[in-house]
């Protein structure tokens, strides 16, 4: 079978899976002699002639981009089915763009964060937006809940937040790696308006960002080492590992760990215990934990072992 024949077979199989009710068509009930939709019904939904649609199913014509767009709606195709349809038609580049859906944290990611009590962890979404975090990440970086949602972005904080920027012992190396990861995101969705605003704003704020962005460097490494100088517990050497969600959402779990028994491991435990103490008001009056953590974040350095 050639590609046109495969396309026709897919169209035929898909219309057999639909019912008139699903497509807001009158249902003739038991009088229907074929399962699913008739060719005439698909042609009517797609606003094309029955003869043209018949030839598409028979693999005798190549579908145009506008016809493919109407067929995706007529046949109620989901995202994967649309990709498959356009690939069979040899028109993947003609696929119409959809506005990006809202980023919703996967429940499994939330459970993972909650179970990593002593390990700083973040969930990063598209554009390296910070979608979620645990208390250990707050203690290490900053109170993310106090950051406006449109500024809650890993790269933005790395370039624009003095506390986050200042704790990186090798800031230029880490910043360039983060920017290269963002550049790779841009290749996947170059027309994303929020990405364009982020890049434009950071380019205007920081000359280094504009210079490095123009280099078109990309990075795909999912692991590495980060060295921090934290104002409370001093120097930290942490392994940074990132795991991508298997659901295609683009969400990634970023986890920072230290070798057990190392000074960095002990420092993380001290930092976590100080953060939990700050989050528990002694008088039980209901003090807001983020306020307490924020004051601790910029307070006196804790003793280290």
Low-confidence stretches: 278-305
Q: Give the helix tally.
A: 14
Name the average pLDDT.
Answer: 83
- Helical proportion? 40-55%
Query: How far is the N terminus from the C terminus?
Result: 71 Å
Briefly note the structural class of the backbone. alpha+beta
Outline the biggest β-sheet.
5 strands, antiparallel
Q: What's the SSE blueprint?
A:
Blueprint: H1 3-17, H2 39-46, H3 50-57, H4 65-74, H5 79-88, H6 107-115, E1 121-124, E2 130-133, H7 135-140, H8 154-160, H9 162-166, H10 171-188, H11 193-205, H12 207-213, E3 223-230, E4 234-244, E5 252-257, H13 263-278, H14 289-297
Antiparallel strand pairs: 1-2, 1-5, 3-4, 4-5
Short overview:
The chain is an alpha+beta fold and 305 residues long.
Explain this structure to me?
The chain has a five-stranded antiparallel sheet with strand order 2-1-5-4-3. The protein folds into two domains: 3-94, Orthogonal Bundle (434 Repressor (Amino-terminal Domain)); 107-297, Beta-Lactamase, CATH 3.30.450.180. It contains 14 helices and five strands. Strand 1 and strand 2 (130-133) form a beta hairpin. The longest helix is centred in the middle third of the chain and has 18 residues, at 171-188. The model is unreliable at 278-305 (pLDDT under 50). The protein has 305 residues and is α+β, with helices and mostly antiparallel strands. The protein has helices at residues 3-17, 39-46, 50-57, 65-74, 79-88, 107-115, 135-140, 154-160, 162-166, 171-188, 193-205, 207-213, 263-278, 289-297, and strands spanning 121-124, 130-133, 223-230, 234-244, 252-257. The radius of gyration is 26 Å and the shape is elongated. The N and C termini lie far apart (71 Å).
